[in-house]
């Protein structure tokens, strides 16, 4: 039995505020937003973290970045946004299903 909360969100077993969905990926607003706009984009296929990405997933990961770019234009933040992927507990990963945070609507400054 799959206990992954993000797989359950994809399946509709756990409710979410959906931003976008297609055959490869699902986007939904983060329940604890860290910016005025904060949503997550996940592959529908379960991968635990970025370190599990292989060449077989290259199309999906590239597609996710294209979806993020499309959403940034549609939602009006194409000029200023940040994409973050945490991999491993010490990097801040709390959900073991690969996800791309999309943050926008504020001045992030330089990355440090
Ligand atoms: P991480 O810390 O793993 O990089 O990010 C996990 C993110 O998932 C956190 O920002 C957290 O707020 C969000 N999150 C965890 N569980 C849920 C949930 O059930 N629904 C939604 N919408 N977001 C969640
Ligand atoms: Zn999962």
CATH evolutionary superfamily = HIT-like
Query: Care to count the β-strands?
Result: 5
- How many helix segments? 2
* H/E element sequence: HEEEHEE
Helical content band: 10-25%
Which overall shape is indicated by the principal axes computed on the Cα atoms?
Answer: globular
Q: Please tell me the overall pLDDT.
A: 96
Termini separation comes to 39 Å
Please identify the top-level CATH class: Alpha Beta
Helix/strand/pairing category = alpha+beta
Which percent band covers the strand fraction?
Answer: 15-25%
Which assembly state applies to the chains in this document?
single chain
- Examine the secondary-structure arrangement and name the CATH architecture: 2-Layer Sandwich
Bound molecules: guanosine-5'-monophosphate, zinc ion
Gyration radius from CA atoms, angstroms: 14 Å
Low-confidence stretches: none
Sheet with most strands: strand arrangement? 1-2-3-5-4
Topology:
Elements: H1 5-11, E1 18-21, E2 25-29, E3 37-43, H2 58-74, E4 81-84, E5 100-104
Antiparallel strand pairs: 1-2, 2-3, 3-5, 4-5
Identify the notable features of this structure and list them briefly.
HIT family, subunit A, 2 helices, 5-stranded antiparallel sheet, alpha+beta, binds guanosine-5'-monophosphate, binds zinc ion, globular, 112 residues, 5 strands
How is this structure best summarized?
The chain has 112 residues and is an alpha+beta fold.
3D architecture notes:
- The model has no long low-confidence stretch (mean pLDDT 96).
- The protein is an alpha+beta fold.
- A 5-stranded antiparallel beta sheet has the order 1-2-3-5-4, with helices on one face.
- It is built from 2 helices and 5 strands; from the N terminus they run H-E-E-E-H-E-E.
- The chain has one domain (5-104): HIT family, subunit A (2-Layer Sandwich).
- The chain has helices spanning 5-11, 58-74; strands spanning 18-21, 25-29, 37-43, 81-84, 100-104.
- It starts with a helix and ends in an 8-residue tail after the last strand.
